[in-house]
Amino acid sequence: xxxxxxITSDFWKRYRNLVRTEMIPFQWNVLNDQAGxxxxxxxxxxxxxxxxxxxxxxxxxxAAGRTKGTHYGWTFQDSDVYKWLEAVxxxxxxxxxxxxxxxxxxxxxxxxxxxxxDGYLDTFYSILGIEYRYQSLGGSHELYCMGHFIEAAxxxxxxxxxxxxxxxxKKCADNIDDNFGPEDGKxxxxxxxxxxxxxxxxxxHVTKEDRYLQLAxxxxxxxxxxxxxxxxxxxxxxxxxxxxxxxxxxxxxxQNHAPISEQDTAEGHAVRVVYMCTxxxxxxxxxxxxxxxxICKRLxxxxxxxxxxxxxxxxxxxxxxxxxxxxxxxxxxxxCETCAAIGLIFFARQMLRMEADSQYADTMEKALYNCALxxxxxxxxxxxxxxxxxxxxxxxxxxxxKSHVKAVRPSWLGxxxxxxxxxxxxxxxxxxxYTVGSEKILLNNYIDSLAAIQDDNHHLEITxxxxxxxxxxxxxxxxxxxxxxxxxxxxxxxxxxSVDITIDGNKVDNSxxxxxxxxxxxxGAKVEIVLKFKIEIRKYYANSMVSEDIxxxxxxxxxxxxxxEGVDNDGTVSTLKLTENSKFxxxxxxxILGGVxxxxxxGQRVExxxxxxxxxxxxxxxxxxxxxxPYYAWANRGENxxxxxxxx
Length: 648
Ligand code: FUB
Ligand code: ZN
Description:
There is one protein chain. The chain folds into three domains: 425 residues, Alpha/alpha barrel (Glycosyltransferase); 100 residues, Golgi alpha-mannosidase II (Immunoglobulin-like, Sandwich), CATH 2.60.40.1180; 110 residues, no CATH class. 35% of the residues lie in helices and 18% in strands. The protein has 16 helices and 21 strands. Strands 2, 13, 14, 15, 16, 17, 18, 19, 20 and 21 form a ten-stranded antiparallel β-sheet that branches. It has a seven-stranded antiparallel β-sheet with strand order 1-5-6-7-12-9-10, with no helix packed on it. Strands 3-4-8-11 form a four-stranded mixed β-sheet, covered by helices on one side. α13 runs antiparallel to α14. β9 and β10 form a beta hairpin. The protein is of the alpha+beta class. Beta-L-arabinofuranose binds next to loops.
């Protein structure tokens, strides 16, 4: 490994240990239907949601011929197993675990047995009708699942040296290559859900086999060139029900409305968009393609400047789990799927390979510390799919348009894409701290850690000592063991009011270029860079085009966005108000929510003085104390009202 980062941060070690000791074993039990839990439907009113069991491992056993039975679950049920395997890979990369590796190796054997002799891999069609494969790509998720497998395989191979898993992945990619592409006789199409493109590029990076890169490029550039592709396939399809009817969704749902070169706005299903963008950005960075970079920048700007929540969440509507239009950011009906925030983090990471611009790392950090982390309970065993910015638990129960907006995290969901996505994100967080380029190294995330960066261009160690995100000081010790000078770019976060920087005790210029302050570390030198951020409690106002946030304010400190929860605020938070003169105080608080910083403010409560629905009497305004907790930690103390955007 060219770069190895050991995370030593208390904040992140707790999460990473939780994933290793609770989440991965728990998910294994779920995948094997041995967790003894109730699986919830994502929302009411959709009878087609399979939620009696996971059956994911059983599907593989049936496809492998080890047991008899039929397929159960979504067409993409296999991906739950692959994401689990990927999380295992990163977890054992951090700390070898023979018992867990044995389970993973056995799972790989099972997957290999389920693979068709020609490399095709998908239990849904292997069980229900292999002759129908690749014929219903709008909803079948075959390539999506194989993409997840390939990602897991590359990660597991890199972590353990396991060759078998990489062989299965190559066979799988070769089968896709045999079946798709511009040549006559091949399918001129792509999957309804982007993901295979990410997997193929990862496989290319490890094997250097150009066919995989070309195939990823084909899928990306073919998309949107013939929007009727899914409909045409569906019209003649006679195989098992692979989300029948999905082809009638608007072309935008699949990012199939125009070639990617003509896509200026983020349209349709949010996870698909950011997975597509991640792959385009990886391809652009890998091939140094300027046109692809411009596509990425247009989509990035549209998402982050017009369609993203202050928590880093994306997807404004449950209808198609999708983007809607610029500035349409409702707080209590939105989607903000955990996977979408994670996908945005993937996209940001790829953008940093091309542009040393801190906006990417700022957004990565925002999505990570807020929307993504909120997807998981502090116990590591309960998960949100949807991450609202405002909840009234009764409305979620009684208003069918809000049934997807849950007030407490279920143990597991019928559509289980988010929990294993969180597991793989948290276990691979070490990959997001630095961007190692041939000319410079960017320090993107402040996380207590030890990094060894050793490749053809670099030979150095970087140690970060910090109690961030709760503290304002970071000591960075850079030991350059090479002869050449290293250029280190240090990110100045957008939430910092200012920063003092010293190098070996001497104050230095803190002017930044696109959000990074650069310093040279001479060959053979060891320097200590100390950053002291001025972090204040901030009031954020949304653009006035966001009608839902007019007259409201959101509170943040450092990377965290805060929220009000009923449990801290006499039950009801919708009647609370901040004023222009509200004074805020920050309190480190070890006693709640696993140790967080809370914020209090003096404000007001608005109360009607009669019980009429409408009245000519103005409500009474009473003084009130407001208490805020970090958004990521909400919904860990039972069912509660919650609000990010507070009346003011
Ligand atoms: O379609 C597979 C996954 O299920 C998507 O990424 C999620 O949004 C959920 O729809
Ligand atoms: Zn998800």
